[in-house]
Amino acid sequence: MRVEKRVLNDALRVLGKVVCQTSPVELYRSIRFVGDADGVMAMATDGVEIVSVILDAFAESEIDFCVPFKELKDLVRIGRSETIELNGTFIEFPELEEPSADAVSAILPVNFGELLTQAASVVDRSNYRRLLQGINLSNAGVTATDGKQLLHLPCVLSLAKDVTIPFPSALLSAKTSEMGTLQVWDTFFQIEIGNFKWQGKLLEGQYPNWRGVIPSPESHDYSITLHDIEKVLNWVKTIPGQKNTNGVELNVMPDGSVTLVSCIQPNFELNTSATVTGVQPRAVLTLDREIILRMLLQGYTTFKAHSDGLVPVIASGGAGQYIAMPIRTINQNPIQPKQEEKKMEIENNVVEQTAPVVNPLDELGAAVEEFKLKIKAMFDESTALSRKVKEVALIQKQKERDFIQARRAIERIRMAI
């Protein structure tokens, strides 16, 4: 089989998201090429999911062989010719599940890949709840949450019930921009878009009731629309990232502008133009730095909130609705304290600063996140140790076989003598 280096590299970028290069099973760390003179398909599997792409390649006759993923990457990296000739060994490959007669089919819009890309930014892939590591699909659209924030992207999908697909790493790498189809049956799903096909198992369990999380329009009594987005983005990016509470205050000023203040650096602030509608907020709107950064990057520039700060914020302006819970601080009136501070600074040259009070739930959440990271690190270490133990066991068995063969050879020599 002959294939251009560029075509093979593009296919490996997608299939590499499924390949498990550290697996002891040769099949799971290899790429299968199957086809004939009419067309060639490259496939990869991790034992649960199967991803395939149709290649623009040439085969003189019927082919069906596997090549290790690492070997293919090396060919692309060091190959001098623009065309690569491939051959390999046959490995029994699991067949794709055939959709049942009662499978539910839905048409995927052209921008489905883009919607998944936006939703994937909210997913917490280290979450101990596997459901929250996936993306929910329903007749209302695409939804993702990590338990702290929620992104809902409206999209017409003809699904009778909600389903949750695993994190779509391969589909995101494919960067599809065509209409496709989604088929769901039993515990399986299949997504086919252009030359890309992905089949796997749906995540089991009941996805969180995200519809009940979205507040009603009546629960918000004011909104803030930022104007100079690039300026705000550059300012937010300069705030150091940290695991614990890292809030950004949006203080509504008397002149209608908004002053952003970093909670971890109280003297670091930015005044920017904005449009504020509704009542005067009684509590400072404080959002997590990572959340507000992600909102702005996806085009969500209007923040609808409640003046007391007890209701989830809905950000609009992007492709859907971005919901996040504000961080509670001790400062309940953002305007009056700032005016009093300026007055005291002029008269007495003394400024009283109020430090934000960290919500105990936020502290608990941060502690849980840190604990999960430690558990994950321990799990990775145990996996590495287990792999080394298996390697040592294989080496020991090989030595035993070599010893037995050597002993038999000596016995045959003695008998011959």
Task: Please tell me about this protein's structure.
The chain has four domains: 2-85, DNA Polymerase III, Chain A, domain 2, CATH 3.10.150.10; 104-210, Roll (DNA Polymerase III, Chain A, domain 2), CATH 3.10.150; 214-356, DNA Polymerase III, Chain A, domain 2, CATH 3.10.150.10; 359-417. It contains nine helices and 24 strands. The protein has helices at residues 5-15, 69-78, 112-120, 169-174, 210-213, 229-237, 289-297, 335-347, 360-416, and strands spanning 2-4, 30-36, 39-45, 50-55, 57-58, 63-68, 83-85, 104-108, 135-138, 141-145, 149-154, 163-165, 180-185, 188-193, 196-201, 222-226, 247-252, 258-262, 269-272, 274-278, 285-288, 302-305, 313-316, 321-324. The strands form four sheets. The protein has a nine-stranded antiparallel sheet with strand order 12-9-10-11-24-23-22-16-20, covered by helices on one side. The chain has an eight-stranded antiparallel sheet with strand order 6-2-3-4-15-14-13-8. Strands 19-18-17-21 form a four-stranded antiparallel sheet. A hairpin with a 6-residue loop joins strand 18 (258-262) and strand 19 (269-272). Mean pLDDT is 87; it is low at 331-358.
